[in-house]
């Protein structure tokens, strides 16, 4: 379940990044690009916070030996 939540948040990050690209290419004056990039940043912070909370609560365990 934890992995599904993280993957969904990553999909939102990529979606908002591409929506910001489309807004930048349109060159409109509604500040959509800034809004989308802000959402991308918010989702990225949410992913990091969620992972840290999940590790602290013991829902996921980090790999102690990366090799």
UniProtKB/TrEMBL annotation:
Pfam families: DUF2909. Keywords: Membrane, Transmembrane, Transmembrane helix. The chain crosses the membrane at residues 6-25, 37-60. This is DUF2909 domain-containing protein. The lineage of its organism: Bacteria, Pseudomonadati, Pseudomonadota, Gammaproteobacteria, Alteromonadales.
């Amino acid at each position: 379940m934890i992995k599904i939540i993280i993957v969904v948040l990553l999909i939102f990050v990529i979606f908002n990044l591409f929506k910001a690209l489309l807004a930048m290419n349109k060159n409109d004056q509604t500040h959509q690009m800034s809004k989308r990039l802000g959402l991308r940043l918010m989702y990225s912070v949410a992913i990091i916070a969620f992972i840290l909370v999940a590790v602290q609560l013991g829902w996921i365990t980090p790999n102690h030996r990366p090799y």
